[in-house]
Amino acid sequence: MNTAIENHWYPVAMISGIDGPRETLLLGKKITLGRKDGTCWVKDATGKALPTVERFGHLWTSPGQPNRDLFTIPEADSPGRRLVDVGSVKVKCSPLRAVENFLDIAHFPFVHTDILGAEPHTEVDRYDVKIREEVDEVWATKVKFYQPQAAKSAAGGITTEYMYRVPAPTCSVLYKTCPPRPGEWDIITLFVQPLTDEWCEVWPWMALYDDESTMSEMVSFQQLIFMQDRSILENQIPRKLPLDPGMEVPTQADMTSVAYRRWLKKIGYTYGAQLVAA
Q1: CB 256 within 8 A of CB 103
Q2: Do you find a cis peptide bond into 238, omega within 30 degrees of 0?
Q3: Is 236 exposed, middle or buried (0-12, 13-18, 19+ CB in 10 A)?
Q4: Which end of the chain has fewer CB atoms at under 10 Å, N or C?
Q5: Alpha helices of the chain — where are they, by DSSP H?
Q6: Which positions carry the signal peptide feature in this UniProt record (predicted)?
Q7: Domain ranges, ordered by start, for the chain
Q8: What contacts 31, CB < 8 A, 6 or more positions away?
Q9: CB neighbour class for 147 (10 Å; exposed up to 12, middle 13-18, buried from 19)
Q10: What's the longest Cα–Cα distance across the chain?
Q11: How confident is the prediction along the chain (278 residues), in pLDDT tens digits per residue?
């Protein structure tokens, strides 16, 4: 495995859920994690201590030597936000497929019917996508879509504005219209742990302005959304994410996916990717 894959940070646990030592997989290899005297730790199969970061309510580690700190989300530190640990879901799909699905707007009316989308509001208007070289991230902006219930806090249908950010190969950050606070963004993230190249654990996390919903209601709403995605993800063919642009035919709605795949090729990240046609 090349350093372009090993030298990234990966989520491996929700900090609040760490008690005794336990084993998990990362990039197909066994690791052990735990907490002692309030400090989290991770070791590889040989007992070697791996670097750790505690951020966004999760424990992160890397089997390599990351050349930069884990990304930040400054907006999440704004006063009044509620930080929501959603839990995790194991999915039988490529970790890259999980991220790409999170970036896909066109499936909303068909998979999340009457929540994030509904017919006849199926058209995705043109939006802007760019690989921001100065930070080495993929960004999609000016994304707008009609949603019957954009969030747990939404009282009715609205046209929701989105911004998508891919700060790491297996992570994505979504900024979306905040129904209770016009002019502010709700933040919904997808942190993906690559167990193997065709099996992953997904750790959603949110930073929301919502003074009405209970914590369990916000968690349940987001889990409902992801469980609707799960069956789609587990039935995609090929299971790995094709990086060759000729292997799948994109539409205008797939501009973010195209940029994401191009970026993965640029940085040499191929774990969970299919490089040639089957």
Answers
A1: yes
A2: yes
A3: middle
A4: C
A5: 3-6, 95-103, 108-111, 215-233, 255-267
A6: none
A7: 79-238
A8: 12, 23, 24, 25, 42, 43, 44, 45, 50, 61, 63
A9: buried
A10: 56
A11: 788 899 999 999 999 999 889 999 999 999 999 999 889 999 999 999 999 999 999 999 999 999 899 999 999 999 999 999 999 999 999 999 999 988 877 545 444 444 544 455 456 678 899 999 999 999 999 888 776 654 454 455 667 888 999 999 999 999 988 878 888 899 999 999 999 999 999 999 999 998 888 999 888 887 887 777 777 888 888 889 998 766 554 555 478 888 999 999 999 999 999 986 55
Question: What is the rounded CA–CA span in Å between residue 96 and residue 192?
Answer: 8
**Does the 79-238 domain belong in CATH 3.40.50.720?**
no
Q: Is the dihedral of CA 14, 20, 25, 31 positive or negative?
A: positive
Query: Measured between alpha carbons, how far is 240 from 197 in angstroms, rounded to an integer?
Result: 7
CA nearest neighbour of 30 among 48, 8, 55: 48
- Beta-bridge partners for 204: 190
Q: Which of 35, 68, 72, 254 is nearest to 173 (CA)?
A: 72
Cα separation values, 228 from 187, 231, 236, Å: 20, 6, 14
Identity of the residue numbered 3: T
